[in-house]
Design goal:
Structural class: alpha+beta
Number of strands: 22
Strand content: 15-25%
Number of helices: 23
Number of domains: 3
């Protein structure tokens, strides 16, 4: 074995605890990187394969009613590769075992063949038969939530008549990977909403659409310009009540899935970067301290002919030791966590293939990044070792020039005990070392704060959304706009305490070259059940005659209060109006556009008309009301606020919380690694000094106070700094989560700071206990030996 190899082994044994702490942090960073990048790769690969194999459409359009012959015209549009027409409509369902009414989306499928686009993956059972019009397939999420199997029966109100539907199979569709009702919803209610596929002839007969269709899906040829195809579709279908064509990017299920993929991609870069940066920081401190204490050894090595290349390689090998130690557990933990996260995704995103496969490229990238962070942390120390001339290295370092510190100049020393004065004096006289220690501990605090912050943001979102915005018990949606008499009919239903009607109309908002397709919601003045509330909990009312837009939507359109937006109504007579922007509101969910109901009626040139209503319900009479709503004609959907809350909590607890606790758990490991390493390095640097104090008569406890008191002082100084850095990281997370569907408020509660402080303090106490044990076993004779 070469001399340098023997020295490397001795150094590894001597620095085993410090290097183990670095390896622990490095393993955490590798595990987080492998977990998040693998989850991202899993989602991307599964999405691409699913969309390709089951021919997910690229363009969608819904109309009121169009003749079947128009379908051939769609296929003739330049840029259209394939087009398939169908019938899509929502109905009220009576599900066995479910007290409240559910909403079912009936989608027609061709009889006797598979769909050309948006093909179905049959989980179990069979497809509906031509001669049995009541047979349906149900979506897997809906079937699982309501325990439906082939042979189960459902009741449905179809065109005012109650019908019995027979479940013959369970299926999946690329159109409903994330199964929610539509715009305005974020979290799935799989018990209250499901998709049902029915034979085309049977569904057309039931809804009086024989020889007609109301929905179409298209794919485009390579090189086709989507905007041009959409314009042609809108012009062609306007006479048939077209609601505006849109691309796959705006399809609700795909948009949620794509946003999740984008978020995992960003998180898989930001979070591991923080962890690996901390490991590089720790390794820099360890290696710098090692080079400083091995000056005499460096001089001997160079005097005996070892060149700069050999010396530099020796210290780089030492720096890579934590990489080799932390890589295997980090990769294994990352792969295990990625597999667990993939199972969580599989419960919310309905994919036909649930198998998770590891990606060797991700593991190789993790190893390369870990090695790069180690080299980054060691490069400065290695540079100084290589650049140190032998003659200079033979001489001991010049003693530090000590002077009176700030505490002594201010006269604070007289208020401190001798031990406390020594602690303060040592911190003041080594400002760079002290700042590095504060910085490392502050990073640990910041990582914990930024991890726990998301829980605060989600709690605030829940409080505002379900305590201030959505305060209704029930939402009723009509199949078509109804006159004001419908409001009085709802008010006379059993258990209904309050009725607040709303008018919702599909529109396209334009401002210069920018446009966005959304729903314009007309609210009654003084509404209490459904309100517009900003992130601070302040209620906002649309100004008469003006639009109230969410800030994200206003930013997409490039407008501000006082500006003007062109509103193109996509139903009825399809009027086009110039409407001023009366205000902007910061909402956390969706892209809302609001008007007061009277102004919306004037814009549409109609009387008081209702699209639906929000209801406050007496809980004691709710079962009776649900029974009536299940058989009531003219209603296409019923939404329960409590079901939405349960869906929110289930999604957060099962997906959001698990991934966040992984990050927070690793952040706690970082906190321990940083604090323990700082204490161990301080012990190594001051071993001779502390041993001298023991010889002079100081007790073990008094010596421990000098060492651990310094670490306690640095930890206390790092807490507020870490809180500020953590707030900055929380702001960065908020910016990254700012999507069209979901936005987190920048709110960090005091309990989060307290929790982060307790975590780091606990890590400091545990580190202090371990260092105190080592200090008690200090060999005074060995430490006091004069260096040769």
């Amino acid at each position: 074995m070469r001399a340098l190899d023997r020295k490397l082994l001795r150094d590894l044994v001597h620095l085993k605890s410090q290097l183990a702490a670095v390896a622990l942090v490095l393993a955490s960073g590798i595990a987080i990187f492998v977990t998040l990048r693998s989850a991202h790769a899993y989602l991307v690969a599964t999405q691409e394969a699913y969309y390709r194999d089951y021919r997910f459409a690229q363009v969608f359009v819904h109309v009121k009613r169009a003749p079947r012959a128009v379908g051939a015209t769609l296929r003739a549009i330049p840029g259209v590769a394939a087009a398939e027409t169908r019938i899509v409509t929502d109905v009220i369902l009576d599900v066995p075992g479910l007290d409240e009414p559910a909403t079912g989306r009936l989608v027609s499928i061709p009889t006797g063949r598979r769909p050309l686009l948006n093909d179905l993956h049959l989980r179990r059972g069979r497809f509906p038969s031509r001669d049995r019009p009541s047979e349906v397939l149900v979506s897997e999420a809906f079937a699982r939530a309501n325990r439906l199997d082939p042979g189960s029966a459902l009741g449905a109100v179809i065109e005012g008549r109650w019908q019995r539907l027979q479940v013959v199979g369970v299926a999946l569709s690329p159109e409903y990977v994330y199964e929610i009702r539509g715009e305005g919803e974020v979290f799935p209610d799989n018990r209250g909403f499901g998709v049902l596929w029915m034979g085309e002839e049977a569904l057309a007969t039931a809804f009086g659409l024989s020889g007609a269709w109301n929905d179409a899906s298209l794919t485009l040829t390579p090189g086709a310009v989507p905007g041009e195809v959409l314009d042609q579709l809108d012009r062609l279908l306007a006479r048939y009540g077209g609601l505006g064509a849109y691309t796959r990017e705006d399809q609700i299920s795909n948009r949620f899935l794509t946003d999740e993929i984008t978020e995992t991609q960003a998180t898989s870069v930001i979070v591991p970067t923080i962890f690996l940066a901390v490991s590089a920081f720790l390794l820099h401190i360890v290696m710098s301290r090692l080079v400083a204490t091995q000056r005499d050894q460096l001089a001997v090595l160079k005097a005996f002919g070892y060149g700069n290349l050999a010396v530099g390689r020796h210290y780089l090998e030492l720096a890579l030791a934590p990489v080799l130690t932390g890589t295997v557990p980090g990769v294994l933990a990352g792969l295990w966590l990625a597999s667990a996260l993939a199972r969580v995704y599989a419960r919310f995103y309905q994919f036909p293939a649930l198998a998770y496969r590891s990606h060797p490229g991700i593991v190789a990238a993790a190893l390369a990044i870990a090695a790069g962070s180690a080299l980054l942390g060691a490069v400065d120390a290695v540079r100084r070792a290589v650049a140190l001339p032998p003659a200079e290295a033979m001489r001991p370092e010049a003693p530090a020039r000590f002077r009176r510190g700030l505490a002594e100049r201010l006269g604070l020393g007289r208020f401190l005990s001798p031990s406390a004065r020594l602690v303060v004096r040592n911190v003041e006289r080594r400002p760079v070392k002290s700042l590095l220690g504060v910085g490392g501990i502050a990073l640990a605090v910041a990582v914990v704060v930024s991890g726990l912050f998301v829980f605060d943001a989600v709690d605030v979102l829940k409080e505002v959304q379900f305590g201030e915005v959505e305060r209704e018990d029930l939402t009723v949606v009509f199949t078509a706009p109804r006159p004001v008499a419908a409001r009085h009919a709802l008010a006379h239903l059993p258990g209904v305490l309050r009725v607040e009607p709303f008018r919702a109309v599909p529109v396209r908002l334009r401002a210069g070259p920018r446009s966005h397709r959304t729903s314009l919601l007309g609210l009654s003045p003084g509404a209490e059940l459904r309100r517009v509330v900003d992130v601070r909990g302040r209620a906002r009312q649309p100004l008469p005659g003006g639009l109230l837009l969410t800030d994200t939507l206003a930013g997409m359109l490039g407008v501000a209060p006082g500006g003007t937006v062109t509103v193109e109504v996509l139903e009825g007579e399809r009027p086009v109006r110039e409407v001023p922007v009366g205000g902007v509101v910061s909402e956390m969910l969706g892209l809302g556009a609001y008007m007061d109901s009277a102004s919306l009626h004037r814009l549409l040139r109609e009387g008081e008309t209702l699209s639906g209503a929000y209801l406050a319900v007496d809980r004691a009479q709710a079962p009776r009301l649900y029974t009536l709503l299940k058989r009531l004609p003219g209603i296409s959907g019923v939404g329960l606020r409590q079901a939405v809350i349960e869906g929110f909590e289930r999604t957060i607890s099962e997906s959001f919380s698990q991934s966040l606790w992984i990050v927070v758990g690793f952040a706690c490991l970082i906190a321990f690694g940083v604090v323990y390493n700082a204490a161990r390095i301080s012990l190594s640097e001051r071993g001779r000094e502390l041993a001298s104090l023991r010889v002079l008569g100081f007790s073990r406890g008094e010596v421990a106070v000098l060492l651990l008191g310094e670490q306690a002082l640095l930890t206390l100084a790092a807490l507020p700094v870490g809180a500020l850095i953590g707030y900055g990281l929380a702001a960065l997370i908020t910016l990254r989560s700012d999507s069209e569907l979901f936005r987190l408020p920048l709110i960090v509660r005091q309990a989060t700071y307290v929790s982060a402080f307790l975590v780091v303090t606990g890590a400091a106490l545990l580190s202090g206990f371990l260092v105190r044990r080592r200090l008690d076993r200090l060999d005074l004779v060995e430490v006091l030996k004069t260096r040769e």
